[in-house]
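Researcher: I'm comparing several assemblies side by side, and this is the next one on my list. It has 933 residues spread over two chains. Same procedure as the others: predict the full complex and return the structure.
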Amino acid sequence: MQVNLTINKKLYTLELKGHETLMEVLREHLSMTGTKTACQETECGTCTVMINGKAVLSCITLAANAQGDEITTIEGLANGDVLHPVQQAYVDCGSVQCGFCIPGMIMSSVALLEKNPQPTQEEIEYALDGNICRCAGYPKIFEAVREAGKKMKSEN
Amino acid sequence: MALKSKSKYEDEYVDPVGKSVPRIEGRGIVTGQLKYVFDVYFPNMLIGKMLRSPHAHARIISIDTSKAEALPGVRSVVTYKDTHQIKFGSNEYFFPHTVDQMALEADKVRYIGDEVAAVAAVDEETADAALRLIDVKYEVLPGVFEIEEAIKPGAPQIHESLNNIAVILPVNFGNPERVMKEADLVREDKFWCPVAHPAPMEPHVCVGQWETFTNKITLWSSSQAPFKCREALAKTLKMDLNDVRVIKMAVGGGFGGKLEMLPMDFASCLLSKKAGGLPVKISLTREEEFTTTRRKHGMIYKIKTGVKKDGTILAITGEVLADGGAYCSYGPTVLAAAIMRIFMVYKIQHFRMSGYRVYTNNPISGAMRGFGGVQSGFAIESHMDLIAKDLGMDPIEFRLKNITEPNMVTVNKMILTTNGLRECIEKAAKASGWVEKRGKMKNIKRGIGIGIAADVMGSKMYKSHESAGAIVKVEEDGSVYLFTGAADTGQGSNTALSQIAAHELGVSYSRIKCKAGDTEITPFDTGSFASRVTFISGNAALLGGRDAKLQILEIVAQDNDLDIKDLDIRAEKVIFKKDGKALMSFDKALELCYSFKYGKQIIGRGSYNPKTTPIDFRTGEGNVSGSYGFEAQIAEVEVDTDTGNVKVLELWDAHDIGKAINPQSVESQIEGSLAMGIGYTFYEDLRFKNGRVLNANFAGYRVPRSIGMPKMTTIMVETDELEGPFGAKGMGEASLLPTAAAIANAVEDAIGVRIKELPITADKIIKALKEKSAQKI
């Protein structure tokens, strides 16, 4: 079947069988390997992308069902060479260790901050609870979300 | 001589050592551009899968692969018949008889998941279908799954060893039995330390390629120890080391689990060979990761201590039984570390402890962050608190009376030089408000507890040496390569090593690009384990920077008719040592090196082997580390006595790290350790029934998530280690060792009950509270 997907504001026309997940299509059909997966069963959050501004797990989203939606992946956040404020904050705050969870973690952070640039600690914890980081123990991730939120608020 | 023009590097120069420069990989990570092996897709790449035993213990009668081979889309199938049947293991140097695993088993399977065959096909569906077509006939044997059952005479024998005991480690010093009689108090405790799993976010993944006509093997690997992986591959495939190239890409976490070659690494190469040299990718599923990769040893830890009334420890005896699972892996040395770490922490003269590494038909136990120290940390630090309580002493006062000191030699000949343990304890106590809080918050069901620990910076338990090498290559335009064999698995070693090399070479950090962990182009390094990289690989990077610098200065001295001894390079300038005055810029000096006249390539070389001695495992003696790190941790908790729920309010961690090369990375390592320690304390517990893992996913095996993380306060104690690069020691594991005990000790302070079997669950708290109130009646 022919499937049209809008990913990072570009339209892609793909010939699919229909059962492919969005994660598979991103990684294997479009070579957009920025989106990772660590469990493929909805438990780790590593494959998070944004669909219409909401954080969504691409490992259980059928690509064919995302036709007509605005899909944003980690590759679509930076503006040219300029990192998105959330990306920049993750670098500046030293929030990354191995980095494997980070694309998903950043997508969840962006989805939160676009709605709520000044979240409380509790709101941050709830927004990121679906994303496992095994290395860094979260404090520096929380810090990055707060810092990015400040910047995003002042930019608006 | 006046400087003509300043380079951008001179303008921006700051001394990189001690600065929180951002991680080299940072921008790659946050944009998704950094490539992991998981992200490798070659044209014509095949997908490989492992066929695993469904039985915990069985004899292999026959394997028929003909139907799988005939399936369209299948490119190769391999079994033991395609191998040299050479066993591999990780303690071959000290315990050769523990080399007991074959990449593809021939006669017997010993746990559910044991590798029997492998297939490579054009896609995953075909590979899965092919696995189902392989016909293996088994004769199922009785299995044994509990440590104490496995060592009974008559238990099913898993290998050839007597009573399933792979290794017995007797560690004896002094005369504990005699001295124990002089004690005012003798206390004995038994603890259970459960099985945890490293559970890195990136499951094991590899791409193997065996170019058949040139006989060249390349393995793109998620290894923590690419050179160790190469050694095992070369040995089992009967190749020379330089026939095998292991390329470590970005690694999505390891925590000890990625320290060894796994059968999948071996199989991907063999499958590739049989498929005419096409690359074969094998990625484990999360379930395979939890069930077939190395896990933390479950341990029964029995410890008995005799003390004087004033709190002086006289003697310690005990026994440690470790559930090794089906094969030995790093087991013997994990066991040794679980017993011998105590000598770094407490002054002990009379000691007798025996360790037993026991085979069971459970999955394979091996290295995991802490390397035996998490188990012993929980047992020993809980036990020490109980002794202090029996003596009516404050737990900190009791510890301060018995801890090791700077510049001492322990009973097993470890040479402790700088030792900030006392300072760590005092600083953590002060920061946490210990004196105001301890024993004074029972009315609000809050408590505070301490645990202390020490750790090695590398350990001579791998092979005859554990050296690290570095090459610092200065290009014609002044840009610099650091080649290191060290394996950055996310801890930030590429960044820290670049900081060290830049400082020593005397140039701006941003000149440096780091190339790491490729066995064909980088120098040898034993890998990322035992918190060794900053210390050992860091010293190699320092020596490489120094050698490059001297090569440049040699030309400068010659050209200016000066003595090289009078010159140095600091902050982007060649200077006179005596007054610090600049002779020329670094760029100018380099122009000279690459001039018509000199044409000298600058390739600095560093090699460092710590001044250590291997452990003599017959006696337990040996100075295994070139430096030792120390650690004190305090936890404050609040217990809900209705639900049994324990909330950690704050953790204070004071860590003697010698010198923080990159303070932000140090803090991040500590915070990551504390989170993992919280996981081990409350919920990380891989559970089994008849050898089958019951919770092989993130829903069943809970790891720390963002909700419920306590406030973490880190205190860096800098003792300026003489042997370390710019005073640095290694770090990254020690902060995980005392967490469970600090929390268990805080729980007792809060509500007066003691949990001796991890994890501390709500039902255990409620049960203990009921038992306590029953005792009162």
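Model: For your comparison table: Residues 298-460+615-776 of chain B form a domain with the Aldehyde Oxidoreductase; domain 4 fold (CATH 3.30.365.10).
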